[in-house]
Automatic annotation (TrEMBL), chain A:
Organism expressing this protein natively: freshwater metagenome
Annotated ranges, domain WYL: 170-230
Name of the featured protein: Unannotated protein
Domain WCX, chain residue ranges per copy: 264-331
InterPro entries linked: CBASS_pafABC_assoc_protein, WCX_dom, WYL_dom
A Pfam cross-reference name: WYL
Classification via PROSITE patterns: WYL (PS52050)
Automatic annotation (TrEMBL), chain B:
Annotated WYL domain residues: 155-217
UniProt-listed Pfam families: HTH_PafC, WCX, WYL
Protein name: Unannotated protein
Organism: freshwater metagenome
InterPro entries recorded: CBASS_pafABC_assoc_protein, PafC-like, PafC_HTH, WCX_dom, WYL_dom
Segment forming the signal sequence: none
PANTHER family: PROTEIN PAFB (PTHR34580:SF3), PTHR34580
Domain spans labelled WCX: 250-322
Domain PafC HTH: 13-130
Amino acid sequence: MTGEPLGEGDWQKEPDTKPERLLSLTLALLSNSVGLSKEELFRSVRGYSLAIEDGVKPDAINKMFERDKQSLRDMGVQVETFIRDSDMDDNTESRYFIPAETFVWPKGTSLTPNQLRLLELAAKVWARASFSAEASRAVMRLKALGMASEGLELAGFAPRILTNEPGILQLEEAARDRLEVTFDYRAPERSVERRVVHPWQVRHVAGQWLLVCWDVERQDVRNFMLKRIVSRIKPTGEQFEAITQAQLEDALERLRLFTLQNTAVVSVVPGTEAWVHFEMDSHAHGGSTTYEFNFMDVHLLAEQLRVFGATVTVHAPSELRDAIRSGLEKVANAHA
Amino acid sequence: MPKLKNVLSGDDQFNFLIALIGLIHREGEIHITAAAERLGMSVEAVRKAMSTLVVAGHRKPSGAEEIPFNFDWDLFDEEQVLRFSDSDIILDAPRISTRQAAAIAAGLSYLKSLPEFASEADVDSLIALLASTQPTASPPTIFFEVGTVGADVGLLRRAILAELQISCSYTNQRGEESVRSLEPFRLDPRGAVWYLKAYCPISRQIKSFRLDRMRQIVLGENPWSEAARQAFAEFDQEEDRLYVPGESDTDVIVEVDPEAYELVSEFTTISEPNSSSSGVIRVTIKVGHLPNLGHLIAKYGGAARVISPPVARELVRNYALSALGQKSNDFQRIEDED
């Protein structure tokens, strides 16, 4: 939320009648128990009937309707279709309706001022990052469920989620719609590879956004770091079966076990920034300068350790030492 | 940054309309000012929404026109209170979309990872509420995993709320440890890294300090100084970037691959690359203290490159060579606290 109320005239800046049309469409589909065919809809919703009168081509009206359905869906209004039994043989025209029970919150749903405060803060953590629009819209809607809150602003605290990966919205959408997607992935020290995956969850782990997914070609669970996706994310047109919580838990457990297998041993020069850093990370070391810890990804760790320059020495594993060294060599060469 | 906060898209207007419908149904009647405040909109925007509501109708297949919403206009004219009259359709607050729910739930899971909210039962109840209204029982499509946070956060929060100074030992990037007096203003958790925004009496400005470089934090007895109060009053609360540009900043042109986009994200809007070759972007970033570039750039192991000025390229090269042990440790690093 911007916090700033909208001023006069803002409502009119978009000249089309889309909000009105979306509302009329919602009302028409809600109030009709036998659903409406597309033709009936176009006649009963003024936005469409006026467009038809204005001579807009059927193709364009159809496209408008498809976009409107998507908009409704983005706002939480589920338009469903069915084919009437009596139409089965000769006429297979779809009829559209909105089931009333999916439309409104379950009876008695309400929110306390404290819950509203938390929701607003949860929306705010997205700030300018991906999902900020969705989160703000959700909060506006949820406010209708709650009691007025006053003076519950959180002073002196501005938590923010950071997303620097442009593909995050698309991957979340693909996960939600169970769409198989393909993208180019550049694993460190390897050439770019095209991957085909079933996205399960976009997950923030240890400072990184990961895509937890099923790799169609490898026929196995894989985790991809979003920042290593180097192409557009394209749907293949295939859909996949919904996954269960247990499947996801299995995948995450494997990631945890994998992390536990990776142990790094480093030593740091006392009194340096690195020394402070590691003492913060592992409280139990009592003045020692050698640290041992688990890590998820050797190249990610190399990135974190390069920041400390020569004040950190890696004892194990050798892959980590090599990754730090080869990265520094690339930097030196690129700036020769 | 692109900000369209004064123009609502058609979708946003529709979202506002159904929020308003839900609010009026829930409340029975509500003053227009209260409705505007609740939904974070202007009174004028509510008026416009009302006029859209009363024309949003549809024709029944029979041909009869149906306008489901009408207001009790007498009540509105006299007291500016919104109440539906004779609406055919009882429309309680409509549910939010899967994506809206996912965005909020992820925000909540992030809050839950912060000590301030770890024990808030309401966070869990809200996550459960959001999940319960979704059509399928599939796991959430976006999730923020709980990380670890330094123990001093609670102390700093107390100092901020009580408007007190603190002292701490701060280690800069050269490994120089010094005892500092700071006037803490705001905690800025950014992903996994925590920063404290505080007024620094030495440089007489607000700066960001990394919590993982602070130790032995002690709550002082002195309240914020006048100078600090003034600096806080002038600070734009909506400004949530860590880096506050200064007049003596140097413009540095860098080239980054997708792996290093985070380096430039505060300076540009990034869109999806078309292909692996087109993902390289050039951005001018502001650097307060040039020697900091060494580790900032070297971190990415080649995925970020300085194009100009030449002195910056030289600094980065020297940093890399010295980290490789091929050059004596003669580079200068100064704390990057802004």
